[in-house]
Amino acid sequence: MFGIGMPELIIILVIILIIFGAGKLPEIGAGMGKAIRNFKGASDEEEKKEPEKIEKDNKSDSSPGN
């Protein structure tokens, strides 16, 4: 996983704890969770739009006027 093992992750988490403090960590985690959720929602929305776009393109290509 990106060449990062457990010792490196623990060191990173300790540094984050020192920088932000224990009180801010839940807020940071909640913010990251919301960001990931919004990103997934946006990517799912794009996947839903793509088949509709393809179907519309296929219908316009097969019209007798072309």
Give the gist of this structure.
The protein has 66 residues and is an all-alpha fold. It contains 2 helices and no strands.
Describe this structure in words.
There is one protein chain. With 66 residues, the protein is an all-alpha fold. The protein is 79% helix and 0% strand. It has two helices and no strands. The longest helix is centred in the middle third of the chain and has 37 residues, at 25-61. The N and C termini lie far apart (52 Å).
Q: Which range does the strand content fall in?
A: under 5%
H/E element string?
HH
Characterize the largest beta sheet: strand count, sense, and whether it forms a barrel. Answer: none
Mean pLDDT: 80
- Quaternary assembly: single chain
Radius of gyration: 23 Å
Question: Can you tell me the residue ranges where pLDDT is under 50 for at least 5 consecutive residues?
Answer: none
Q: With helices defined by DSSP (H or I, 4 residues minimum), what is the helix count?
A: 2
What is the strand tally?
A: 0
Distance between the termini: 52 Å
Spatial shape: elongated
The SS-based structural class is mainly alpha
State the helical fraction. Answer: over 70%
Question: Any key phrases for this structure?
Answer:
elongated, 79% helix, 66 residues, 2 helices
Indicate the topology.
Elements: H1 6-20, H2 25-61
